[in-house]
Design a protein that fits this description.
Length: about 325
């Protein structure tokens, strides 16, 4: 693992992957299985529809991962993390922040707002704070807030993705940022993980690759649509949340949207109960969707990724000139 990562974190990982937090998809089962298999498992705090449910999730994740480590002290148990929406429309921000203080998730990912106050709280108990960014301006601002890592959300990422090429974005950010760098956007194979490392990323963000898993909260129809889809089935639009993102066009059409008449919405990231219901059948995916061929377990996917990574590493050695 990269020298930029804290030694403890580096020793906990079997692959340099964060299983990205996905709205209405990431579950406690996904987080636990990811961590048990040596990658960072995360979930959006708002996936738990109430603060009471969220507290139960955090208790369960902490307890089960601690138990696994106690049963096998040599096992690589990666840290778990949560995603906190810092945007003003998140009405549960203060409540969720209190639970972060109480249960101390080792990794906190902030989105859509200034992470400065969150970073102070997380650092007080020794945790790490990563912030996702989609532009150089956003990256520069976030880099000044005391966070530990920047998640560069590039073109092709699922959900709220950016438009920048990863080669150019990573190089430009490295000119002013010397902290942990996480690359996101259409990364779904071991070869692509290695490519990100060669570019200088410390970790990669992978979401779409883990949606069609037995541990995810995705519906059977969602999983099947991922298996049936290619990158030609994606549409990049701000008609869903007011922020540009990649979605599976067939799911939008089934929900009554017309491709030719999609219009930008006001930004609304409150994720209320009514909004969750409205989003239930609107599904996102990244441009790596074509690599999903079947429903698997998280363990199986990580084993495949590790094998692909090692094969790519061997090939890379043979390319020396």
């Amino acid at each position: 693992m990269s020298g930029k990562l804290p030694i403890k974190l580096s020793n906990q990982l079997s692959l340099p992957i964060i299983n990205a937090p996905m709205f209405l998809v990431s579950s406690p089962d996904m987080v636990i299985e990811s961590c048990r298999n040596g990658i960072i498992g995360t979930f959006p705090l708002l996936n738990a529809r109430t603060s009471e449910l969220l507290e139960n999730w955090m208790i369960r994740i902490s307890k089960e991962l601690k138990q696994v480590q106690e049963e096998d002290s040599t096992a690589k148990i990666a840290p778990w993390g949560v995603n906190l929406i810092v945007h003003r429309t998140n009405k549960r921000f203060e409540e969720d922040l209190e639970l972060i203080k109480k249960y101390e998730p080792p990794v906190v990912i902030t989105s859509l707002g200034n992470p400065n106050d969150v970073a102070k709280i997380v650092h007080s108990y020794g945790g790490l704070v990563f912030s996702d960014v989609i532009s150089l301006n956003h990256a520069r601002k976030a880099a000044k807030t005391g966070i530990d890592g920047l998640i560069l959300v590039c073109s092709g990422a699922g959900g709220h993705g950016g438009t920048l090429n990863p080669f150019a974005f990573l190089k430009a950010v490295k000119e002013f940022w010397d902290g942990i760098t996480i690359l996101a956007g259409a990364i779904s194979t071991g070869e692509e993980i290695l490519a990100a490392k060669i570019l200088g990323a410390d970790l990669v963000y992978m979401g779409t690759r883990f949606i069609a898993t037995e541990e995810s909260s995705a519906s059977e129809d969602y999983r099947q649509m991922l298996i049936d889809s290619t990158l030609e089935d994606l549409i990049y639009t701000d008609a869903i949340s007011g922020i540009k993102g990649n979605y599976l066009l067939p799911s939008l059409q089934k929900a009554g949207f017309n491709k030719e008449n999609l219009k930008k919405k006001e930004v609304d990231l409150s994720f209320s109960e009514s909004k969750a219901k409205a989003w239930k059948d609107i599904w996102s995916a990244g441009q790596g969707v074509g690599n999903i061929k079947k429903v698997s377990t998280i363990k199986e996917i990580i084993e495949d990724l590790r094998a692909e990574y090692n094969i790519a590493l061997t090939k890379n050695e043979s390319l020396k000139v």
